[in-house]
């Protein structure tokens, strides 16, 4: 089977969020199962770092990055990503593939690919990755609704199947939009091999001069309003009153919210207790996960929660809100605490884990087992391949 994956941005453009890694991990897993996978993506976030309009091999996946025009910036930081060169490649080569996998919506690459799939009668799967949650749709609906009516709705309704990464996402999105086509769940994949060789000693603590007796509360994600920092920072202010050795680490690239977050920190006199690291990747990220005591993500809406899975892979207890797609998995596995998005409840959850190292260790161990059984490449790839075979 030959699969073409069309995506607006791709590995290693990690600044655009967790799906960048998860899509590549799925493609790698498919290749390991004997599927031939080709990726068409733009060079968003990678200009000058990758060759464009030519095919390269990344972990067995054939990847072509295409240049694009940054127009209609009101749609997002990279605009609509109109790519003439990708259009030419799709017209020339799309018919050679058995199935087309479109990872994302709201962009030109996946919209034009869906158009040619219908023109050439090729089956295609759309992975919406949280963009259709009712909460997300309501935010900035003025710029989404017309685009949805003109383009996205038809792309979704005519798809052979819609891919969701959690059951929660499927239940909240599919019927609410009146979609009647096939829907299936295949979670994001984490590559546990990346966590086999841990950085030595207390590399992260040493770099940021955090003493060993300090307890690190780690937030890992974009510095964006949707991640719930407006709840986390006030909750942390309450934590400090009872646990003065706590340190809050905010690890992630600024996505327009750092100024607001900094003002919240300053207002509560938390400057000496909070560390901004910027975006972490590779060994820097693993060092932060290794040295932390608890992971917290109080998002307003999150279709999956890749950073949560990464934390569990390290054996960290996690505290997340019910708005995160894998919340039910965390509850069933007893891998952490799932709370309402409310300051008091969040601060109490953090204090509970910091005060109970045995409980934290048990939760961390359960989280690691959950990752190994549910989010490994082989198991997820098998689910995905089963659907692909049924629709081709």
Report on this model:
The mean pLDDT is 92. The protein has 15 helices and 14 strands. It has an eight-stranded mixed sheet, with helices on both faces. The chain folds into two domains: 204 residues, Rossmann fold (3-Layer(aba) Sandwich); 182 residues, 3-Layer(aba) Sandwich (Rossmann fold), CATH 3.40.50.2000. The chain is globular, with a radius of gyration of 21 Å. 42% of the residues lie in helices and 18% in strands. With 392 residues, the protein is α/β, with parallel strands linked by helices.
Could you name the ranges where pLDDT drops below 50 across 5 or more consecutive residues? none
Q: Provide mean pLDDT, rounded.
A: 92
Largest sheet data: 8 strands, mixed
Structural class: alpha/beta
* Share of β-strand residues: 15-25%
Bin the helical content.
40-55%
Instruction: Give me the Rg, rounded.
Output: 21 Å
Give the name of the CATH architecture of the largest domain: 3-Layer(aba) Sandwich
């Amino acid at each position: 089977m030959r699969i073409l994956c069309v995506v607006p941005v791709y590995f290693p453009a990690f600044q655009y969020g967790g799906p960048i890694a998860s899509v590549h991990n799925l493609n790698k897993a498919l290749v390991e199962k004997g599927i031939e996978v080709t990726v068409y993506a733009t060079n968003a976030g990678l200009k000058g770092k990758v060759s464009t309009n030519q095919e390269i091999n990344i972990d067995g996946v054939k990847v072509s990055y295409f240049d694009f025009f940054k127009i209609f910036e009101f749609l997002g930081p990279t605009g609509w990503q109109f790519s003439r060169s990708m259009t030419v490649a799709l017209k020339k080569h799309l018919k050679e593939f058995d199935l087309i996998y479109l990872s994302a919506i709201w962009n030109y690459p996946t919209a034009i690919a869906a158009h040619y799939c219908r023109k050439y009668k090729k089956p295609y799967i759309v992975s919406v990755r949280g963009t259709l949650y009712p909460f997300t749709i309501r935010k900035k609906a003025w710029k989404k609704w017309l685009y949805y009516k003109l383009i996205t709705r038809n792309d979704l309704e005519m798809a052979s199947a819609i891919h969701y990464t959690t059951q929660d996402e499927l239940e909240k999105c599919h019927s609410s939009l009146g979609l009647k086509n096939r829907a299936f769940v295949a979670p994001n994949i984490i590559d546990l091999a990346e966590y086999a060789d841990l950085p030595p000693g207390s590399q992260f603590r040493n770099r940021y001069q955090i003493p060993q007796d300090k307890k690190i509360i780690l937030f890992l994600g974009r510095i964006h309003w949707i991640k719930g920092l407006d709840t986390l920072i006030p909750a942390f202010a309450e934590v400090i009153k009872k646990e003065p050795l706590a340190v809050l680490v905010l690890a992630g690239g600024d996505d327009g919210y750092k100024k607001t977050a900094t003002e919240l920190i300053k207002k509560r006199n938390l400057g000496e207790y909070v560390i901004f690291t910027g975006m972490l990747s590779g060994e820097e990220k693993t060092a932060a996960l290794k040295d932390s005591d608890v992971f917290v993500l109080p998002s307003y809406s999150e279709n999956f929660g890749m950073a949560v899975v990464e934390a569990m892979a390290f054996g960290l207890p996690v505290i997340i809100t019910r708005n995160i797609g894998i919340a039910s998995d965390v509850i069933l596995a007893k891998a952490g605490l799932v709370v309402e998005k409310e300051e008091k409840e969040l601060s109490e959850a953090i204090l509970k884990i910091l005060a109970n190292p045995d409980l934290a260790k048990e939760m961390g161990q359960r989280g690691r087992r959950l990752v190994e059984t549910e989010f490994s490449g082989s198991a997820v790839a098998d689910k995905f391949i089963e659907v692909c075979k049924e629709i081709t």
